[in-house]
Amino acid sequence: MPEGGSASSRLDAAWAELYTQHQRLAGVHPVTLFERDPERFEHCSASAAGLLLDWSRQRIDAAALSALGALAEAAGVTEGIEAMFRGDAINVIEGRAVLHAALRQPAGAGIGGAAIEAQVLAERARMLAFAGSVRASGEFDDVVHLGIGGSDLGPAMALQALRHHATGGPRVRFAANVDGCALSDLLAEVDPRRTLFIVVSKTFTTQETLANARSARAWLVERLGEGAVPAHFAAVSVNGAAMDAFGIHPQRRFQMWDWVGGRYSLWSSVGVSLAIALGAARFGELLAGAHAMDQHFREAPWSRNLPVLMALLGVWNIDCERLPTLAVLPYDSRLARFPAFLQQLDMESNGKRVGLDGQPVGYGTAPVVWGEPGNEAQHSFFQMLHQGRPRAALDILIGLRSSCGREDHQELAIANALAQAEALLRGRRGEGVTPQQVQEGGRPLSLLVFDRLDPATLGALVALYEHKVFVQSRVWGINAFDQFGVELGKRIAGEVAEAMRQGDASAAVSPSLRGVLAHVRARRGAAP
Length: 528
Ligand code: F6P
Hints:
Layout: H1 7-25, H2 30-36, H3 40-43, E1 45-48, E2 51-54, H4 62-74, H5 77-86, H6 100-103, H7 114-137, E3 142-146, H8 153-161, E4 171-175, H9 181-187, E5 195-200, H10 207-224, H11 229-232, E6 233-237, H12 240-246, E7 253-255, H13 272-278, H14 280-299, H15 306-320, E8 325-330, H16 338-350, E9 368-370, H17 374-378, H18 382-387, E10 393-399, H19 407-426, E11 445-450, H20 455-476, H21 487-502, H22 511-524
Parallel strand pairs: 3-4, 3-5, 5-6, 6-7, 8-9, 8-10, 10-11
Antiparallel strand pairs: 1-2, 2-11
Helix pairs in contact: 1-4, 4-15, 7-13, 8-13, 8-16, 13-14, 14-20, 15-20, 16-20
Bound molecules: 6-O-phosphono-beta-D-fructofuranose.
């Protein structure tokens, strides 16, 4: 790579070199790469914070990887990492710092500066004291968490993943969807006298969450009277006035900050329901696992740095191999919601087409993330992964110990995961194999292996993907921390709801909306 020159010419040169490397490897089957380098597994794997990343089945070699490393350097990844941990306003579009890593720091780490650290530790202590009192008092049998998007997916995913650690506290469940069905199902099962509702919304303006929160409030008031609200509702938000208006007691409200995005907020008081389910010690282990990944991310050279490597392999697959989708396949069914969590993390962060400079980005950006527990998916969509025309990049997640104490079953799960990885690598061809039976192999996949799904491992896993997303945003020159794309739909939803109430759409709406609204009205009648 040429020395000197402008940052943008260095970046252009790094991209050009990357494409040259890709041309060189075009048509090379990954199996051949193992023949060229018998120690490929050792050269193409790295570990940190209890996770092993094995990218040996990707169609990449040392020279191509080093071109990716040069691209990361030219894109300012190293400076970006330091700026994030320092608390610089790296969300330049909104003028905000990005400090989810500060939320999981232990005392003395100083991430984001002394003032941020003090705020985080104080609010964490308040939240954990509250969670502890809810667990210890025996006052509640059920906790109902009401939120959506980043105010739901993280805690809901984590509680499902760590269900085997959630003992000794009330039952914690989640309702997010605006249709109210999840809420109705929960309300049918709980006793109002023994239920705590926690409304989680950074803005406290989100239509779905407020609809569910108001319905839950009305249900409670109908049974116990208005005076029961302060004792049966808690909330997490930056919006104190809205919490006042709702009637949230000052001691039952917890703070968020502008410098944490919803999809990065699991570690804050947004995780209060999780802390109630797990207890403070386990919740602390989750934070510690994430912090261990943060330290690794900050300190390890790019060639051993798991989030950087995963990000660069993703760039390779998206922009060179032209694979726009990433399937995430956990071989631990307790991680069933992990792909859904990653969908928001990755696609809401990097699903963008305009860069920080206001110009269209010349590369593919966020992958379409999808996935299911791997073993069950073998019996549904794996056929396409093996032989279909659209190809996907794959992350296969493997826990070495059972989450439910069934080691005999987990042994089979591991065997299945490794067998699939082998089949996807090697394929099937040769004598006696009919054309319909041929499998090309060479499907690009990485393995992520961990000892067992415990709070620390989950924390490290989530932080790994968070940082992967950040590194990719630096490489593509986009801002991972805004989400302007969702705003138009939110605004129109308000307008449509109003039009349904009034029975009259404004002249500004499209003819198709006007037509379907007339149909809705004819079939449903006026909105209640
Ligand atoms: O869907 C967009 C979004 O703004 C997400 O970014 C966010 O996590 C979610 O809505 C919920 O927002 P809030 O926490 O403000 O209710």
